Amino acid sequence: MEELTGAQLIAESLKTQNVEYMFGIVGVPIIEVAMAAQAAGIKYVGMRNEQAVEACRLFSKFSVRPSSLEVIPSVVEKAVRASMYGRPGACYIDIAGDMVNAKVDRSQIRVVSCCPDPPVSLADHGAVAEAVSVLKTAKRPLVIIGKGAAYSRAETALREFVETSGLPFLPTPMGKGVLPDDHPHCVAAARSRLALLQADVILLLGARLNWILHFGLPPRFDPNVKIIQVDLCAEEMGNNVRPAVALLGDINAVVTQLLQGICKDGWKYGSGTEWWSLLRNKIAANAKISKTLALQSTVPMNYYTVFHHVSQLLPHDCIIISEGANTMDIGRTMLNNYLPRHRLDAGTFGTMGVGLGFAIAAATLERSNGEKGRRIVCVEGDSAFGFSGMEVETMCRYNLPVVIIVVNNNGIYSGVDPETWREMAKMGDLTSIAPPVTLLPEARYDEVMAAFGGKGYLVRTVEELRSALELSLTDWQRPSLLNVLIDPSSDRKQQEFPWLTRSNL
Q: Is Calcium given among the entry's keywords (predicted)?
């Protein structure tokens, strides 16, 4: 007779489902699970930030508490299967502490095999024909590429579809790179003030009409816009806006169906239309404005100057991770992605604090894929970095060569300069005087990294930025952090928050 502890059973069940890595924060009884995982051949990465314990239950696709040791293999298999089937998502297994060290005879455990790959579903043929018909009637069509397209690995079919149809497209944040951001049909630079606002037919590919896309509603969208919604999740159909056509199925498979539909009679949306002319003019005008801001030589720098020079130095195949307010929003437009599944950001819920965890997971996986792998570059706002900043110790502990760029404006959205901060401090209690969005000016986040053995750089000028980033990108032995000090009032447009002007302090 062979007895297994609950910890061993958990580890073996995960290994059976081809789990390679475990990320966690130890403490009794998690220590036993982590050790059992290592013994089973699973690599364990010990983290520092425990923001999501119980909170994740409400946002999980599948949540369960096993009633006995015997059902653990089945529960683990179902959780792994649920995380991948349909729309992917997190699953939560809550195992009682006393079960971890309890024992059960192996003969009582039912053998559960690894779950198969998710099934691929096609859309209804009649609905596909209707969608093609609606597309052909459009005067101002637009394709929106969401992260569902990235997940379904639709890049090859989508490139052929876009180039065959002649349609303009724009990606959502994590749809970036499914088709390259520098593709001639990409109109992301004309996103809000033209593409979304004036499109009369939108082909929505694996993207949700949530806050990221202004819920698909006026005034950001035409009130009469026709939505062709393609999604893997039936419950997503019709959220906020009822689609003119709903196509339920795998994005890659459905795009292939649509491609076949438009190829039947050789239809193509003309490149000389008034719509394309408007889009190109808007893209050129926005590019001119961004370039003017990017080439400003003033110190402290602004967002556009920082991202302009960062974009020139980043490898085309690097994985970009970004979170923050202005940092993430402006970075989306200026830091291009050229390959699919090479960008992670705060996502649907806009959750701050996920960036460094994403970076650690990505760097761990990249190291397992080769001697060096792709560069992992984590672009953070100073506020966002503060949520999980202690994870730099994790990076240093495992020698993960992540490059962190903290774009530091001394606040959330905007801050104040050191002199203004000192003047406010003289006026009385800062809890009553300091604007709620301000953070400590010129905080030395670079020294936080240096404290654990990584390399920290304090950056004020373009020359310092380029030098520090070039050095960091060539250092594969340790993580680096660039603390880039920018103008506290730098923003996408002047006086976004006029009440924060110095005269009001």
A: no
Q: Which residue, 223, 229, 215, 168, is CA-closest to 195?
A: 168
Query: Bridge partners of 202?
Result: 142, 227
Nearest to 29 by CA among 111, 86, 100, 85: 100
- Rounded distance between C-alpha atoms, residue 291 and residue 490, angstroms: 15
Beta-carbon contacts of residue 406 (< 8 Å; ≥ 6 apart) = 380, 381, 382, 385, 445, 446, 481, 482, 483, 484
Each of the 505 residues of the chain gets a pLDDT tens digit; together they read 789 999 999 999 999 999 999 998 877 678 899 999 999 999 999 888 866 484 565 678 899 999 999 999 999 999 999 999 998 988 999 888 899 999 999 999 999 999 999 999 999 999 999 999 999 999 999 999 999 999 999 999 999 999 999 999 999 999 999 999 999 999 999 998 899 999 999 999 999 999 889 999 999 999 999 999 999 999 999 999 999 999 999 999 999 999 999 999 899 999 999 999 999 999 999 999 999 999 998 999 999 999 999 999 999 999 999 999 899 999 999 999 999 999 998 887 788 889 999 999 999 999 988 778 899 999 999 999 999 999 999 999 999 999 999 999 999 888 999 999 999 999 999 988 999 889 999 999 999 999 999 999 999 999 999 999 999 999 999 999 999 999 999 987 443 333 333 333 3
Give the CA distances from residue 228 to residues 44, 172, 445, in Å, rounded to whole numbers and listed in that order. Answer: 43, 16, 46
Tell me 88's DSSP state. Answer: -
Give Cα separations from 259 to 54, 124, 206, 458, 491 (angstroms): 44, 15, 16, 51, 41
Q: Which residue type occupies 251?
A: I
User: For every residue of 226-267, which 3-state class applies, written as one string?
Assistant: EEEEEECCHHHCCCCCCCCEEEECCHHHHHHHHHHHHHCCCC
For the packed helices 72-84 and 6-16, what is the interaxial angle rounded to 10 degrees?
A: 40
Instruction: State the Cα–Cα distance between residues 97 and 30, nearest whole angstrom.
Output: 8
Q: List % helix, strand, coil for the chain (3-state, nearest 5).
A: 45, 15, 40
Measured CA distances, 292 to 187, 295, 483 (Å): 20, 5, 24
pTM over the 0.85 mark: yes
Residue 403 main-chain phi, psi, to 5 deg: -105, 115
Decide: residue 26, CB within 10 A, 0-12 exposed, 13-18 middle, 19+ buried: middle
Count Cα atoms within 13 angstroms, Cβ side, for 6: 19
Give the separation between CA 93 and CA 71, rounded to whole angstroms.
Answer: 12
